[in-house]
C-alpha cells in the first residue's frame, strides 16, 4: 500500500467529469414521459409486439430473427431495455413536476396570505368608517333638531311678544 504524504486531505481519484444541462435533460425526460403516458404509445407498442410475434412464429425457422424456440430472447431484451430507461425518465419527470407543483403551492400560499391581510385591513377600515358614520347626523335627525329649535324660537318670540305687551315694563 502506497502512503500518502499529506494525510490532511482525502485522496483524489480520477473521475470522468461528465457535465450536462440538467434543465435540458429534464425537459427531454418530460417529453419522453408524456409520450410513454399516452394511449397512442400503447397502441403502437402493442402493434410492434404483435408484428414481432407474427414474424418470429409463422415463417420457417431460418427466416426468424428471434425464434419462439429460444423464448423470444431479443423481444424480452428490447422490452427490458425500454422499461429500464422509461422508469427513471418517468420518475425524473414526476420529480420535476412535483417541484413545480410545490413552487406553485408556495406561491398560492403567499397570495392567500396577502389576500387575507388585505381583507383584514379592509374590514378594519370599514369598521372605522362605520364608527365615524355613527356620529354623523342624519337628515331626519337634523330635521327633528331644526323642528325643536323652531319650536323653541317660536316660544321665545311669543314670550318676548308677551313681555313687549306688558304695560309695567317688567323685564325677565
Provide a short characterization of the protein structure:
This protein has 4 helices and no strands.
Q: Can you characterise this structure?
A:
The structure is a single chain. The chain has helices spanning 22-36, 39-57, 73-134, 139-164. It has 172 residues and is an all-alpha fold. The chain is elongated and about 150 Å long. The longest helix is centred in the middle third of the chain and has 62 residues, at 73-134. Helix 1 (22-36) crosses helix 3. It has a domain at 22-116.
Q: Major sheet, described briefly? A: none
N-to-C terminal Cα separation, in Å?
129 Å
Could you tell me the strand content as a percent range? under 5%
- Outline: elongated
What's the gyration radius in Å? 46 Å
- The poorly predicted ranges are none
Count of DSSP strands: 0
* Mean pLDDT over all positions: 87
Give the % helix.
over 70%
What is the H-and-E element order?
A: HHHH
Structural class: mainly alpha
Give the secondary structure arrangement, pairings included.
Layout: H1 22-36, H2 39-57, H3 73-134, H4 139-164
Core attributes:
172 residues, mainly alpha, elongated
Amino acid at each position: 500500500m502506497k502512503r500518502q504524504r499529506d494525510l490532511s486531505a482525502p485522496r483524489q481519484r480520477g473521475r470522468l467529469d461528465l457535465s450536462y444541462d440538467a434543465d435540458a435533460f429534464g425537459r427531454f425526460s418530460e417529453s419522453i414521459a408524456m409520450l410513454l403516458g399516452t394511449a397512442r404509445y400503447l397502441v403502437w407498442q402493442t402493434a410492434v409486439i404483435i408484428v414481432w410475434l407474427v414474424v418470429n412464429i409463422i415463417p420457417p425457422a431460418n427466416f426468424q430473427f428471434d425464434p419462439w424456440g429460444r423464448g423470444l430472447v431479443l423481444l424480452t431484451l428490447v422490452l427490458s431495455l425500454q422499461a429500464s430507461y422509461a422508469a427513471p425518465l418517468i420518475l425524473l419527470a414526476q420529480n420535476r413536476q412535483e417541484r413545480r407543483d410545490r413552487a406553485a403551492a408556495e406561491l398560492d400560499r403567499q397570495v392567500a396570505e396577502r389576500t387575507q391581510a388585505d381583507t383584514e385591513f379592509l374590514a378594519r377600515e370599514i369598521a372605522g368608517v362605520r364608527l365615524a358614520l355613527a356620529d354623523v347626523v342624519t337628515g331626519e335627525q337634523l330635521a327633528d333638531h331644526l323642528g325643536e329649535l323652531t319650536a323653541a324660537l317660536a316660544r321665545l318670540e311669543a314670550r318676548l311678544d308677551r313681555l313687549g305687551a306688558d304695560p309695567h315694563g317688567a323685564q325677565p
